[in-house]
Design brief:
Shape: flat
Helix content: 40-55%
Number of strands: 10
Largest sheet: 5 strands, parallel
Number of domains: 4
Radius of gyration: 28 Å
Structural class: alpha/beta
């Protein structure tokens, strides 16, 4: 008969624990895991204690974070009082409290499959350990070593595109970050995708035939290397290894195969004024399904709290009321009570509102079908917003990088005459202005805060980009006319960025139009005047 299992762990190891739970449940074990088992509306400490007392085996994930966690310590101290069977799962070798050194253990630092096989064997037949539990030493899975090895040439190649600033900023420390488990996949992915093009652009603008040939080869070589590295960073092994910030967004646990009978439920939507558009859509969908809006959280059967940078806690008490956190924007400052229960994750887009409305009468079915583990510090963006950010960054890379012929070949000529110096000042000013606007646009859009996080701001940014690019065309023509030279690079510095803008902007506008709902939800609504 399968045993009941309670898992005590740190949230930093959620990728490892998620996969472990899935494999345990495939073997018909009943697993108690906090964010999947805690029921909103009941005292959590009582639920945790019941989960421990009902369990036959306690799996304690050992890592630096878990042994430093007060919540984990309370759980294993409670287990000691219950005299339950404990199996230590060694995720990291760290010094243990003496009271834990006598228990069974399984080493998961290296081969994951071997660790699973040993764990399943011990669950069936307890063992008397012949060796002491490892408390020192460094071992990592093979996929981590492979990702680390591939990240080294990626880091080195990124230095060729150092003029982009952001590519080496994320890729140079990547080997170290892989071992630290705290890289952020989204900017790393953007850097890996854009690096081959940035190297190719550097090659085209090189005044040396030797460098031209070398950079062209490195651009071609870096493309498959980066794609392979991206694949590894999203592999199961790296998902188990990485901290939440390096994990891919979790998916709902099961597909919906049935719905509860229609039954009106009183609901309340708790939200910041900036998230008003999402709240309106949620409210409209619930009312069309026959549910009743409550005047406040106290009188509601279910409270939906929209979590973003503008709101990080609920007006309802999760231990006495039914609360559904709806995360619409990544945030690492979410209140502890909301981090203990599952979320409705809408960071990649507001979806499935009608399904949520139909499942509202059955909280357990709603949680199992659509809710995911809490991990708010992942950087997750709707596809329309991600495409917009990529377009701005790519445009900035092309615009700034295309002026290298001037910098590398004609800088000495510009300072021979005061007029040429004036031209240089204009050129530098235009590049700084373009780079600065690009930076603040990306920053404001990602954070949903600031002037560019609005339709007016986006239109203003597009107009400013056009003005700067045409200003650079004028600089380009003026410089070469005054120098009186004819070179192969004429036009690359100013006309390529302008061409990319003229082609890319209409495509971007069409894409945003078809995804205008996501754009509307993402851009913050204005706060009402007091």
């Amino acid at each position: 008969m399968a045993q009941n299992i309670f898992i005590s762990y740190s949230r930093r190891e959620v990728g490892f624990v998620d996969d472990l739970v899935r494999r345990l449940e495939a073997e018909k074990y009943a697993v108690w895991l906090d964010y999947r088992s805690l029921v909103a509306g009941s005292p959590w400490q009582d639920q945790i204690y019941k989960g421990i007392t009902d369990a036959e085996v306690i799996l304690l994930v050992i890592s630096k974070e878990s042994l430093a966690s007060r919540n984990v310590e309370v759980e294993w101290q409670c287990v000691l009082g219950e005299k339950k069977r404990i199996i230590l799962l060694i995720f990291e070798a760290v010094e243990l409290p003496p009271v834990l050194e006598k228990y069974e253990w399984v080493d998961f630092r290296g081969n994951y499959k071997a660790g699973l096989d040993e764990l399943f064997s011990q669950l069936k037949t307890p063992v008397q350990e012949e060796h002491p539990v490892p408390q020192t030493g460094f071992k990592v899975p093979a996929v981590v070593w492979l990702s680390f090895i591939l990240s080294i040439p990626a880091a080195i190649f990124s230095l060729i595109s150092i003029w982009t600033l952001f590519i080496p900023f994320f890729l140079v420390p990547l080997p170290y970050r892989i071992f630290k488990r705290d890289f952020s996949y989204l900017p790393v992915q953007a850097s890996l995708l854009m690096m081959p093009f940035a190297i190719f652009l550097t090659a085209n603008l090189s005044v040396s035939d030797t460098l031209y040939d070398l950079f062209r080869v490195l651009a071609v070589v870096s493309l498959p290397l980066n794609l392979w590295l991206m694949y590894l960073l999203r592999s199961e092994g790296m998902q188990r290894w990485g901290k939440p910030s390096a994990n891919s967004p979790a998916k709902p646990h099961v597909d919906m195969t049935r719905f509860p009978q229609d039954k009106p439920i009183k609901y309340f939507i708790d939200h910041a004024p900036q998230d008003r558009e999402i709240a309106i859509s949620l409210d409209r969908t619930f009312k069309s399904a026959g549910h009743i809006e409550s005047a406040g959280a106290d009188s509601a059967k279910a409270t939906f709290t929209l979590i973003s940078r503008f709101k990080t806690e609920s007006v309802a008490d999760c231990e006495s009321q039914l609360v559904y956190p709806v995360i619409v924007q990544s945030n690492d400052k979410i209140s502890p009570q909301l981090s203990r229960i599952q979320w409705l994750d809408m960071r990649s887009g507001v979806r499935n509102l009608d399904v949520i409305a139909r499942l509202l009468p059955d909280p357990a079915l709603l949680s199992r079908g659509l809710c995911v583990r809490p991990s708010g510090n992942q950087l997750v963006l709707p596809s329309a917003i991600l495409a917009l950010i990529y377009f701005i960054v790519f445009l900035a890379v092309v615009c700034i990088g295309s002026w290298f012929p001037y910098i590398s070949q004609y800088a000495n000529l510009f300072f021979k005459d005061p007029f040429y110096l004036e031209v240089v000042v204009q050129l530098i000013a235009s590049l700084i202005l373009f780079g600065g606007i690009s930076y603040f646009m990306v920053r404001h859009i990602m954070q949903r805060q600031g002037f560019f996080a609005s339709l007016l701001g986006l239109l203003t940014g597009a107009v400013l980009f056009a003005a700067i690019l045409y200003w650079q065309v004028a600089i380009d023509n003026m410089v070469f006319d005054l120098l009186g030279v004819t070179v192969d690079y004429r036009g690359i510095s100013s006309y390529y960025p302008r061409g990319l803008y003229m082609i890319g902007l209409p495509i971007m506008l069409i894409y945003l139009w078809f995804n205008r709902r996501d754009l509307m939800y993402w851009l913050p609504a204005k706060k009402p005047k007091q």
